Amino acid sequence: MEDMELLIILIESKDRGASKMLLTSELLEEVVRLDNSIQATNITLKHGTMFSFKNLFTRRGSINFLFDAFKMGYDMQNLNEQLNFTLDSAIQLDSPFATIYDHRFLTLQHFFGADTYPRDNVTRVSQIKAVQSIGLWYMLQAPLPDRAGRDILHDIELKVFEMSQQNFSSYFDFYMYADEVANHEMMVGSLKTTNLLVVGAKDAAPVDRLERVVSDVGPSILITSVTNTLAFSVGILSPAYTMMSFCLCTTIAVALDLILEFAVFAPTLVIIVPKLKIKKEIPIEKSWWFKYATFLLSKFGRGLFTLTIVALSVWAYFGIANMNPNFEPEKTFPFDSYLQESLRPIKTLYKEYGPLSIIINKAPDVKNQTDLSTFIQMVESIEALPETYPSNYTQLWLRDYLKYFEKHSNDSLSYQLVPQFLEDRLMKDKNVVLYHEDVNGIVHIDSFVLLVICHGERNWHSRAFFVDKLRSMVDSHPEYKASVFDYDATIFDLIITAKPEMIKAVVVTLVCMVIVCFVIIPSPKHTGIATLSVLSISYSLIGALGWWGQDMDPVTMTNVLMAIGFSVDFSAHICYHYFKQERIDTRLGLKVEHNELVYRLTSVLLHVGRPTFEAASSTMICMLPLFTVKMYVIGSFAKTVICVGLLGVMHGLFLVPSLLTLTYKGVDDKKRLKETRSTDSDRPLISNQALL
């Protein structure tokens, strides 16, 4: 099933499905013309090789044979009516089932929202009067094994998509959906985003010496980079391919960034940054940060800190409660994409007809009544679920075969009549049943497909967990080696695993941060505060996104994974520098009283305050143009960065400093502390330049 794709064509009335289409021979002929036009779609490569739509067919290819059977029966009955002949009683065209010469099949696969005539004694060509929509289905596969094959598949699907935007027929409009078209529309939004991101970059004020840069910010950068690298490395083990790819790319990006920061960017600053003119120092008491530190340690500042913690927690809780665990595919496309129109009728389709394949790789032993009964009971338990139709909708060839064998053979039950059965039922070339005969002529079933039809008001979230539920049911019968297959299973796996992966990422990030922090900052207090800060930012971020209209979907969860990495920056820098300044004071034997603590905090904020604010604000400014891209994924990312920037500044410059200074008590010599700070080499120079 590698590179296999399902292409869906959905046909509606010209008024976007507001009225139903009368089922007439003219309408059916137009559908056939559309089918022929789609299959005639082709492209020519640069070297002259031509590939047509039919070249992309899998072994099943066009799976519209039931529509073809219905059309054949309709034409026969219509001809009888035009010639004033009696309608053939062996042909009954109805919904949801039709019968043509003892062959009963499900018309619900192609005709949706059908209105039928009254059940009276009037004979009609078809009992179906009108339909909401008509569906055509195609199984496609890249014609070449390399990337060129995917490009061919992409180009042909895109031509069909362009055809759907033209006025193909006066009877209807049609919409299409396929993976390559979806990927193309997602890339449209990505290209717009890339162009907008050239407006700015994350920056901070340069320092005088490279040595000072490395000693000041090196440890905190190391904490954030190593923490994120380790955390996302664990995500590489995720069973979901999409999540694994995301974590792998992020791990490589963060690791390379750490190397480039010290090996390229920092040395380059020494070359390109002009020598700063040394200006006269100003007293630390006159700096804005001194006034701010005084406010933080005041009673009003302490009260505001407590109130903020409580309010933020309650606010985030209700924001999370507002989030719906849902995902819709249109979130990945631009809002003005024509593909949005295609998804509208497809939602209606899945409410009435949602096929789900179960592949049986080891057929039950029909000679063993117990084994056969167990298999039938497994199927019946699936059919009894509220999301599925009853047994008469299920496409299970084995049930019909048991009746066929009983009618055509007096021998004990076996699979010997399977070839004849498939031939009589016109199923031999449909690859529903795969079998082989051994040297003795005994028929063995290799595998077969069981098709269950689902229905009801189901969003993608409920569909995903229903598939997961079905997997558990078939896994309880390992003797049949059954597997559940859905064409949207990749998205389903992402929906199912996103939440546990996010929780795991938060836990792993916190554990990694604790370990790395404790190696560089061997202090349980500072490490614990940094960890609590990351946890608080992550929790508040999810609540903020909930208030901003985001759902609890894989898009939001993936953004939160990235945001966790961002949040480490705000915590690590302030905690490291505070630990460093505290260690200096301890080495000098200083015990700081309440008023003197202002000087310690001011010194720390002079190191990290302005860079933290500049980094957050410049990043948020870069995100503002992204709000012009009308695409949920891009908007969600921009919202996440804005929220984590605001929350990061709040934590890094308000909550964490307040928390770091909460436990300090004692009396000390103010003059000694100030003199020590003014002569200590670790203390930054306070100049006009630093205060600008």
Salient structural properties:
single chain, 692 residues, alpha+beta, Multidrug efflux transporter AcrB transmembrane fold, 3 domains, five-stranded antiparallel beta sheet, four-stranded antiparallel beta sheet, 20 helices, 17 strands, 12% strand, elongated, disordered C terminus, SSD, PTHD_SSD
Describe the fold and architecture.
By secondary structure, this protein is an alpha+beta fold. It folds into 3 domains: 4-177, no CATH class; 193-277 and 288-321 and 500-691, Multidrug efflux transporter AcrB transmembrane fold (Up-down Bundle), CATH 1.20.1640; 349-487, no CATH class. The chain is built from 20 helices and 17 strands. The protein has helices at residues 25-39, 65-82, 147-164, 179-196, 210-235, 241-272, 288-296, 299-321, 339-352, 369-383, 397-408, 418-424, 460-475, 489-520, 524-547, 554-587, 597-623, 632-660, 670-679, 688-691; strands at 4-12, 21-22, 42-44, 50-52, 57-62, 91-92, 97-100, 103-106, 111-112, 115-116, 128-131, 133-141, 173-177, 354-360, 433-437, 443-454, 482-485. The strands form 5 sheets. Strands 1, 5, 9, 12 and 13 form a 5-stranded antiparallel β-sheet that branches. Strands 15-16-14-17 form a 4-stranded antiparallel β-sheet. A hairpin with a 5-residue loop joins strand 3 (42-44) and strand 4. Helix 5 (210-235) crosses helix 16, helix 8 packs across helix 15 (524-547) and helix 14 (489-520) packs antiparallel against helix 15. The longest helix is centred in the last third of the chain and has 34 residues, at 554-587. Pfam families: Patched (PF02460). It is found in: Membrane. Keywords: Glycoprotein, Membrane, Transmembrane, Transmembrane helix. It is a multi-pass membrane protein. Belongs to the patched family.
